[in-house]
UniProtKB/TrEMBL annotation, chain A:
This is ABC transmembrane type-1 domain-containing protein. GO terms for biological process: transmembrane transport. CDD domains: TM_PBP2. SUPFAM superfamilies: MetI-like. Belongs to the binding-protein-dependent transport system permease family.
Amino acid sequence: MGLATYAARRAVTSVILFFVSVSIAFFIFRLLGNPVAIMVGPGLPPGAAQVLTAEFGLNKPLWLQFVLFWRNFFHGNLGDSFVYTGTPVLQVIFPTRFINTVVLMGSGMLLSYLVSIPLGLLAGRRYGSMLDRGFSGLSVVLISLPAFWLALIILLVLGFYLGWIPLGGTVTLNRTFSSWWSYAANYMHHLIGPMISIAVFFFGSNFLITRASSANVLRENFIRTFEAAGVGEGTIVFRHGLRNAILPELSFMAVQMSFLVAGAIFTESVFSWDGMGSLIYLAVQNSDYPVLQATFIFIAIVVIASNYIADILYGLIDPRVRYD
Amino acid sequence: MLRSPPAVAGFIGTLSFTVLAIFGPLIVGQQQILNTYTPFSPPSLAHPFGTDYAGHDILSLLIYGTQRSVLIGFLAGLFTMVIGILVGLVAGYLGGVLEEFLMRVTDLFIIMPSIVLAIILVSLLGPSDYNIILAISLTSWMSVARIIRSDTLTLKSRTFVEAAKISGARTFYVLRRHILPNEVHMITSNTLLAVAGAVVIEAGLNFLGIGNVSQVSWGIVLYQAELNGAVVTGAWWDIVFPGLFITLFVLSVSLLGRGLERLLDPRGGVGGVRAR
Amino acid sequence: MSEGDVLLEVRDLCVVYESLDARIRAVDHVDLTLRRGETLALVGESGCGKSTLGNAIIGILPANAEVSGEILFEGVNIVSLPRKRMRRIRWEKIAMVFQNAQNSLDPTLRVGDQLVEVILAHRSIPRVEAQRRVKELFSLVGLPPDYYRSYPHELSGGSRQRVIIAMALLLNPQLLIADEPTTGLDVSVQLQILNLLKDIKQRFQMSMIFITHDIAVANYVSDRMAVMYAGQIVEAAPSQALLAKPLHPYTIALTESLLTLDRRVKKQPIAGFPPDLSKTITGCRFAERCRFAVDECRREEPPMVDVDGRVSKCFFAEQISNKVVGYDYRGD
């Protein structure tokens, strides 16, 4: 079976996973709470409440509600936010909050990889050296830190004491920007703190995974071949070590995504970063269930998609993978 | 274990936190955490960890709150293990359609963002400690199930288990007599890791203000600190010390867990990569 | 034999592996001479130090190995060479063919690209030129050119070994060390690989050190053999002569196991085990397993003795040569 067939088959499983997770979101909210209170909410005018009740069939049998839920889902209707009255939840998420989260997570993870992977490769190569023991010890401490505490400390040090970064937000509020450039600069300035938090939060696990796989790979016979052949240390560690060490990192993707979501919620909440993580925080504070449900569904879709991509990438990097 | 300094440190730390958890409320007392002094005063002899926004002594709050944090973490870790071991044992030992089904469910739970699920569960079910324990256990059992299943699969094919099965031993007997004793090392260390993880999640949920905020726990102290502007007033002690409690607890328990895993492994210990 | 004929000379080489609880003397005071154009086979049981000796010559011993003595390559002692200069000697002058093991090539890269990488590590030439060189060598070792784009796991064991041989030839080395190059291959493939090695050795006018546990294979490829036992060379002689008339009891035992192979009888391993190299050994190292051993053998280490221009590390070398002691010695 070729890569294309494999990709197609994995796509089918991913779609099934998607249907099941969205259905779970439906049932959690219908079965664990009072559906009318949950979907219609307290702050709405009586008229709007009636419209929503009819739209989601909240007085109808559960199976019919389930059908209606899916129909609405495919029309892009996941209800209206209680807090941003009358705003469809999809518009609360898209596009600003979604983009903000992607920018933060993307840059934070990138920064983390840029530091942790080279160090992990070197530590694996010099297993048991001072460098290895030092960073391994640091990583064990780092993975024990709660994400929100780390974010608070970074905010306190870089923001309050050193004054290098703003104390929160995505851009400075109530300020008009003369050009897109000054807007971007302001945005980047706000990004520094949460980005560093994410990077530090993920350093420990990334380092330890890379180090372990690097130590294993660099013990393989082919490394000795290339050493004997006079190939430089840099090529050995970064070309052969990296390619082979990245594979376990990819297969760790599903678990990593779960951490990433947690990191997003806590870091964004601490830094008031206008993303999906802080949206969850706000939604919880205000019992904004439609937003909570939609965010859950949305994150599930992103996680399923990333796992799918990671699986395909794995096949592209490792030619040994048999698709059966 | 005695030859491994990290494991010894973990043991001492875990022991200290256990003592604090049992006797904390006796040492500090209800009245002492209600007393108020000057708000946001920095660490001093009278208040080694300073005071919070309302003037509570932070050291007293943390000692008093240890019981609640550790107890929630311990119970949540325990239930996580119970679910994980049950799923893993049944899937690994019985196999067949049941295994297929259970592992699909495990995959599904791994895919779903567990922290969001936990947040939703607590906010729908209500902010009680029981619901927090329930939410944590329901969203963290997956890795345990996977580990136990793969180990059970290996053990199942070993001679002594085969022999017991052929000689007509009942399933329950084989599990209790032959499988579980060989997994004690993994179960012990994973329980400790599960407790450590549960304490972090519990602190996180409380930090977000989802839990019962009228009581004292490590996460609640941080929640109150953030809510009442400890960062913008520069009251670092209100943030640093509660976090240190959480971090030290997690570090001690997980170091002990790793140490015990090596000590108890009947197959001579994994010990990571051996030197050549 | 003039001085210019000598390519490699090993003098009094010792390699000790240090670990937390032991010092293992893997190579113990070894002397060895290799002439230009000559194939020398190092023969011995596994663990006798032959691979360590090979690895020491090309300089890829693990960090816990302690080396003393001299390895003179074209008159230069390469034991004490700085890392950087040694890197230039490796593969440009001395190349190695490793045992056909799993993962002897990077599983995630195309084999052609891995060979190109080796060339580019030594020569600053355009990539296409390196690729051309690789394809040239592929045809030389009998691989179709489209194997260039294959991944290691797609090749058979024999083809993979041909790739490894092509890799060794990339930079026209003067010395090729082949460490058990046919282990793990089918018997018919083994012969092909041996013939290929003999062929390219002629064609490239190289010298070769061939490491094997199989004295028949050694005889097939080599001009001269050195038999190793427990970290020492116990006998060295031209291959034909050595096989026809072994002068050391250990060699006799090795040739006997060869005879049983010819009769299609199950190969008889030599009784007993080699000594523990982490302990100090007094006397002859083979004494415990030797049928000729007398008390003296266990007390004193025998010297290397010259017999008819050959060497043997046995008190009885001369007697064995004159058939005073022999196969039926016991029966007397």
